[in-house]
Amino acid sequence: MSKKITFDIDKNIFQLLELRFKDDEQGLNNFIIDAIRIHLKSTSLSEEKNNDLEDYLKKGLSGSRTYGIKGQGW
Questions:
Q1: Which candidate among 35, 45, 70, 73 keeps its CA 20 to 30 Å from the CA of 60?
Q2: What is the CA 41 to chain-centroid distance, rounded?
Q3: Could you read off the pLDDT of 24-40 as tens digits, one per residue?
């Protein structure tokens, strides 16, 4: 399944990409997709879930019922 995404990039990044790929739109497309895949692989799913849990636990105030419900005060 393929989707299109449009985004704005920094002028300097655009110039570097333009110099590297010139008129090779497919090469540019592959480069961007590969860069995204590499970045997503470096961020493991377990790290993301752990960060979500930590953020959730930090939302409750110490001494409040919601803090205790989250397993931190009881």
A1: 45
A2: 10
A3: 999 999 999 999 999 88
- Cα–Cα distance list, 2 to 5, 23, 33, 64 (Å): 10, 22, 11, 47
Q: What DSSP string runs through 3-72?
A: --------HHHHHHHHHHHTT-HHHHHHHHHHHHHHHHHHS-HHHHHHHHHHHHHHHSPTTSHHHHHTTS
Do 13 and 26 reside in the same domain of the chain?
yes
Is the alpha carbon torsion for 59, 64, 68, 72 positive or negative? Answer: positive
pLDDT tens across 36-65, in order?
Answer: 999 888 776 555 556 666 777 677 666 655
Cβ neighbours of residue 31 closer than 8 Å, sequence gap 6 or more: 17, 20, 21
> To which residue do tokens 């110490």 refer?
62
